[in-house]
Amino acid sequence: MIGCGTIGSELALAIDKTHIKNAIIAFLFDSITSASLDLRDKLHNNYPPIFSKFSQLVSSSSFKEADIIIEAASHTAVRTFAKKIVSSNKSLMIMSTGAFSDVHLLEELYSIVMKHESHIYFPTGAIAGIDALCSVKHILNFVMLTTTKNPKSLAGAPFFDFSKTKPESIRKRKLLYDGNALEAIKMFPTNINVAVLLSLAGLGTRKTRVRVIADPNTNRNEHEIIARGGFGEILIVVRNVPSPHNPKTSYLAALSAIECLRRMCDDKIRIGT
Q1: Is 8 exposed, middle or buried (0-12, 13-18, 19+ CB in 10 A)?
Q2: Tens of pLDDT along 82-110?
Q3: Given 84, 114, 176, 216, which residue has the most CB atoms within 10 angstroms?
């Protein structure tokens, strides 16, 4: 486990409670040691070693014994660690899909994966319908994601460094951003990972339109997806309850990660694949 924040903790606790068959925690990694310690203190059936330096981790027996590495940390963690992980014949689950607004990084990882016995997995996160979008990718001509969140969930986003609008000043529903996914992930890196996941499944980051709306009267994280093409039209609306531990994270994102890992660890489950 790389990253012991909201999603990493949900995954670790699910494994510890044996909700995921055939899985045990090989190690916890976080650059902030206290985060790893706090998470380990919550575990009852696992007592994994803790690492805060990647160089020490990769030289450890814990890393060598691990089959699957889960990234639940940040875009920086993906850019820094992913190549080493997949070149070590490890499968990698990536939560910070926003890192792949850099298409060259994805191409490099794909090249490495093809040379080694490793795989990369992308949970569907806080949205739905990725399988349907993939199936019509060749005949798509329009994809738009509209994300609506409470301003408190958007607080801290780089967008506000360049805008006169501040989260605490928003009193009514307001459109903050309307552009492509490539720029959206730069402006809202911790809020709009789903935009890049949607882009990977469909038209790419430059052709996927993204709108970000702040609504102080909502207590949900809403994602509306519209896709059109030679197949017809897809309309998907997902209204997520925020994680009880972090309002910036949708609870569904953690649940999708748990399900993705469960399917990886149980080769008898093949629904939707």
Answers
A1: buried
A2: 999 999 999 999 999 999 999 899 899 99
A3: 176
Please indicate, yes or no, whether residues 10 and 116 belong to a single structural domain of this protein.
yes
- 200 φ, ψ to 5°? -65, -35
Q: Are residues 51 and 91 in the same domain?
A: yes
Residues 156 and 236 in one domain: yes
Tokens at 104, concatenated: 């060259």
Helix (H), strand (E), coil (C) string for 55-104:
HHHHCCHHHHHCCEEEECCCHHHHHHHHHHHHCCCCEEEECCHHHHHCHH
The angle that helices 103-115 and 75-86 make with each other, rounded to 10 degrees, is: 20
Residue 273 is predicted with a pLDDT of 47
- Asked whether residue 272 is assigned to any structural domain, the reply reads no
Where in the sequence is the domain holding 165, given as residue range(s)? 130-240
Q: Is residue 270 part of a domain?
A: no
Helix (H, G, I), strand (E, B) or coil at 253: helix
* Residue 223 appears among annotated catalytic residues: yes
Beta bridge partners of 147: 212, 223
Enter the pTM of the model: 0.89
pLDDT digits (tens, 9 = 90+) for 213-251: 999 999 999 999 999 999 999 999 999 998 877 777 889
Which of 19, 75, 104, 223 is catalytic? The answer is: 223
Question: How many distinct structural domains can be found in the chain?
Answer: 2
